[in-house]
Amino acid sequence: MMSYLSVNPYKGTRDFYPEDKRIQNYLFQTMRKVVQSYGYEEYDAPLIEDLSLYLAKSGEEIANEQTYTFIDRGGRKLAIRPEMTPSVSRMVARRRQELTYPLRLYSIPNLWRYERQQKGRFREHWQLNVDLFGLDSIQADNEIINIADDIWQTFGAKRSMYQFKINSRKFIDYVLSQYLKLTKDQTLRISKLIDRFNKMPITDFINQVDELISDQQRSFSVPEKLIEIIKTTDLMKLPKALLDIDEIKPIKELLELNSSNITNMAFDGTIMRGFDYYTDIIFEVFDTNPDNNRSMMGGGRYDGLVGLFGVDPLPTVGFGLGDATLLNFMLGHGLLPEITSGIQVYVVHVGQIWQKTRGIIKELRLLGINVAEGNPDRKVSDQISIAVKKKIPYILVIGEEELKSGNFTLKNLASSKEVKNDIRNLARIILDK
Amino acid sequence: MMSYLSVNPYKGTRDFYPEDKRIQNYLFQTMRKVVQSYGYEEYDAPLIEDLSLYLAKSGEEIANEQTYTFIDRGGRKLAIRPEMTPSVSRMVARRRQELTYPLRLYSIPNLWRYERQQKGRFREHWQLNVDLFGLDSIQADNEIINIADDIWQTFGAKRSMYQFKINSRKFIDYVLSQYLKLTKDQTLRISKLIDRFNKMPITDFINQVDELISDQQRSFSVPEKLIEIIKTTDLMKLPKALLDIDEIKPIKELLELNSSNITNMAFDGTIMRGFDYYTDIIFEVFDTNPDNNRSMMGGGRYDGLVGLFGVDPLPTVGFGLGDATLLNFMLGHGLLPEITSGIQVYVVHVGQIWQKTRGIIKELRLLGINVAEGNPDRKVSDQISIAVKKKIPYILVIGEEELKSGNFTLKNLASSKEVKNDIRNLARIILDK
Question: Does residue B12 form part of some domain?
Fold first, then answer.
């Protein structure tokens, strides 16, 4: 007995039927419009890269456990990209001298992660990546954060719907190594723990910190002091000794600069971002909807990555925005508009005379109208019901009589209004719509 | 000593810097415009599919030797898609009952093939896929061929620049099994040989056919008769016994139907298409440029593929168009227009007052203008030279004086003409451009 092929896509991935793809295109086009208004230009990189590209700085868990890796027929160790930042850094390094700065780049690549299925997470997803290279000052961080915010605003989001959380790797480093006087190794390990702070009970966090520190440090209440710092959302409530250090200045400046526009931005010491490459400001944007209360967007400054390729280092700030959590956000807040197929007219054939209708239909297309045709083998009523189901605004009936007279009937399916006229006048009606 | 990461992309792949991506976007947008005018809707499928999807019908060489395959952590045999047809067939089968027909679908996926590097061939390439499901008659083949032709015409190609070659699997099957009276196995093997006819010396072809046939068949001059048939480009010169068979009718009809518009279409019995799934009409489009004399586009009817998934079979016609050969075609015939970055204004900062310029620049963006900013740390002349290098049409100079007076200087970099006015009036000038 013959066995049939499975109709299902690979686990953790999505098929995009036209109604799904239209939504994705709408999301991507809106993102494009915003980033292009800031002068960002689109790039792309190969889907597959050398595995070593990710081992360097993506972070252990991502490069080793969550990445699709394989060996090609030439023995090369490869990876399907789990993120875009290493690729764009490689590309910039490759033309370090020829490129002009500030360099503003964006891309909307598909990325792959080997991970458990959960709501809003897929093995294949798409992510807007926006990066600004070659601008050293806080102006760069500010530009990136304003683009990020502009995207949410352009999607129609209110400030109550999303929340910016901002932190700094340099600041947390200072807290751990200078303020709490931890060793280099403790600082590294506890940084990783902070990254998971919101994913575990607070007692677990304390226990795990306890295990990493000495008795003397415990007696100095290191875990409690740390928690107090990272749980504060008001900078002014931080210990006085931290308020005037250089490491806190970028956070302060960004909050002040945007105090009148991005009013939904606050300090959050638990934001760490998983990747090893961040060097200073980091931020995430959360959905405030309790059903989708997750990070939707994240980024920060990574000044060291381009230099890993043996060229002059380059200050860089960027962020990523994934399609799946964004879609959940849009749906959860009722922000997604109805998006139609873009087909403007459905030709309903009366009889088997499709050969004779070529000229008329071609003329409509030349006038810039998107025309789909029904199947002449089907009844007129069946053809019409397909147009209705597909929410196409107009049907155009064509039979022998219409071809002879040059007068065709155009019907608006929403209003049921019919107009009989020649093709040019009917085209005008369609295009006015 | 630390070793640096390589800046090069994986062998056989391409980085797309903004100037490359702009061209690709132009090619894709033009394709989209044409297929949407015929009522086609975009879909997408996961990049990775079960390997079995390709083993069934893609053809042995493609599925086994040329595909990137690997096994995931759950033990599943997977493939990075080498073509899109199996995926779209799977998707249609998955919703066989809910979908409405005729169903018109397109996609522009990236595809992977493990192959030797050669001009216009890459391991990763993009391919427009256009498919029409559920229309049985020659009307479907005709629609697909007309879309294919419309794409070339919309790119500005003249008929002398490209050539349609049309054939039929059913016709060649009839020639081999009925006319030349070959066995089923001989028919299959010689079909595969014909597919490589243009890639080998004619004497090799004869020798290889000779090896597959009996002495009696040789005495009947099978190789010579076959070559005469597949080398003819004029249907009327075929043996009389072949002129009125059912299997030749679709070829004849398509040639007749398009004799006044697609004048660069002819029969070519050597066109076989590698894939095993074609069932009737097949066609390819060749560049006539002797430096790029290769197939750029190919397709045909594959009525059996959807049925492999255990649902009712569905008549289907489609084609694919790859990005790399298309780009060679456009370049070879001088058809590629100049495509700019889309950045309309470059802000040249005078002094460290970027914080104060936020409002002015935001206003330009709200008016729909794409604005990139120079680096305030650089000299004015350096900022201007970047705008010139990037071919941005306008620069806008902003310093303390301009902010105070509300009058800014806008310079058209092509004409060197300067205008001093308030921001709204300058925006009008930019948008008129």
Answer: no
